[in-house]
Design brief:
With about 350 residues, this protein is an alpha/beta fold. The protein is about 30% helix and about 25% strand. It has helices spanning about 15-25, 100-105, 120-135, 165-175, 190-200, 215-225, 230-235, 260-265, 300-310, 315-325, 330-340, 345-350; strands at about 1-10, 40-50, 75-85, 85-90, 110-115, 140-145, 155-160, 180-185, 205-210, 235-250, 255, 275, 290-300. The strands form 3 sheets. A 7-stranded mixed sheet has the order 7-6-8-9-5-10-13, with helices on both faces. Strand 8 (about 180-185), helix 5 and strand 9 form a beta-alpha-beta unit. The protein is globular, with a radius of gyration of 21 Å. The two termini are about 40 Å apart. The protein binds zinc ion (ZN). Zinc ion (ZN) binds near residues 251, 279, 280, 282 and 283. Zinc ion (ZN) binds near residues 251, 277, 283 and 287.
Length: about 350
């Protein structure tokens, strides 16, 4: 797999196919002029295989290309639009996360973990957090694989296995510069996790991601990696699980006809309305326009910390957190369903809510 990075403006949408194909195969850097005040940044990853999917996120004009193109190469395409100083990445404005989360990322130390499967927007949320936190005089440094967006004013380091610059080694080198905030792209192994923990215990705020389905499982994953539970308990302050769901197009939104059995099955009251998009010219006949995040925000409270120390199962931690008011992925997804933000189809697909 190779990675190429370029920024361009797409004045003619059909040209994107040729452009992506050309860039992907030739590894050239393309730059274009501005269109409608929006510069589009693209990251293209190419993996030769039998079939392919193109994913385009964010730009409304391009949405109908989403998951449409199939040819002899996999191209994963991530798009972020940048306007002024504010970033909107994959439709996740920071205010979409609750006050508890904002509090955790403003602490001077501790570890804040983002969890979810590949493509759930974890890294995007981390970039949004970094952009929210950055200010002159604050040293924010990252170790990533790959660096997906360049953020001005942030020291970003690319992991390079060929030269021995692993996550752990890069992180150790980085710590000698004593940054205030460290983003570790992913906690892949015990060594990386333990260095990150040491950093957080010595006065650094650490932001990182893990591949787990829900927030509580992040703790058991770290312990499974070989990290001592007391180290996890004393360093992790907050765990956020997330998924991305498509937003219903406002132009063609209608009530979705579902049976009372389905309503009951997913835990909605009788007569509760849900919505869907019929498909129109504004949304390229998909019925969706943009995406938003669904979140489960788990603060590591005294009781949760005690359970981590006792090596409790993830379910026990989740139950305790729910007693303390945890809004689960399922709860948040259903709230966004009832609010008409997303559809039942999306909720069932992305959050595995079954009727
Ligand atoms: Zn529409």
């Amino acid at each position: 797999m190779f990675l190429t990075r370029f920024s361009l403006v797409l004045s003619i949408v059909p040209a994107i196919y040729m452009l992506i194909a050309g860039v992907a195969w030739t590894d050239h850097i393309h730059r274009g002029t501005e269109l409608d005040g929006i510069v589009i940044f693209l990251v293209v990853m190419v993996l030769p295989c039998l079939c392919a999917v193109v994913r385009l996120i964010e730009h409304p004009r391009l949405l109908y290309w989403s998951d449409l193109l199939v040819f002899a190469t996999t191209i994963l395409l991530m798009v972020a639009t940048r306007g002024g100083s504010a970033w909107v990445l994959a439709g996740i404005p920071l205010q979409g996360l609750c006050a508890l989360f904002r509090k955790a990322i403003q602490m001077p130390n501790g570890i804040v973990l983002l969890t979810g499967p590949t493509g759930s927007g974890k890294t995007t949320t981390l970039y949004t957090v970094i952009n929210y936190l950055k200010r002159p005089g604050l040293n924010i440094s990252t170790v990533e694989d790959p660096i997906e967006y360049n953020i001005r004013g942030v020291n970003q380091t690319q992991v390079n296995l060929a030269t021995g610059m692993t996550f752990a080694r890069s992180l150790r080198t980085l710590l000698r510069q004593d940054p205030d905030i460290i983003m570790v792209g992913e906690m892949r192994d015990q060594e990386t996790a333990e260095i990150a923990i040491r950093a957080s215990l010595t006065g650094h705020l650490v932001l990182s991601t893990l591949h787990t389905n829900d927030a509580a499982s992040a703790v058991t994953r770290m312990v499974d990696m070989g990290v001592e539970p007391y180290l996890v308990a004393s360093s992790v302050t907050m765990i956020v699980a997330q998924r991305l769901v498509r937003r219903i197009c406002e132009r063609c939104k209608v009530e979705d006809e579902i049976s009372d059995d389905v309503r009951k099955g997913i835990g909605l009251g009788p007569g509760t309305k849900v919505y869907k998009g019929l498909g129109c010219s504004a949304c390229g006949r998909t019925g969706y326009h943009g995406r938003t995040g669904v979140f489960e925000v788990l603060p590591v409270t005294e009781d949760v910390r005690r359970l981590i120390n006792e090596k409790a199962y993830a379910d026990a931690m989740k139950d305790q957190a729910m007693r303390e008011g945890l809004v689960t992925l399922r709860d948040d997804a259903l709230a966004k369903l009832v609010a008409g933000v997303t559809s039942l189809e999306e909720v069932m697909r992305e959050v595995c809510v079954t009727a």
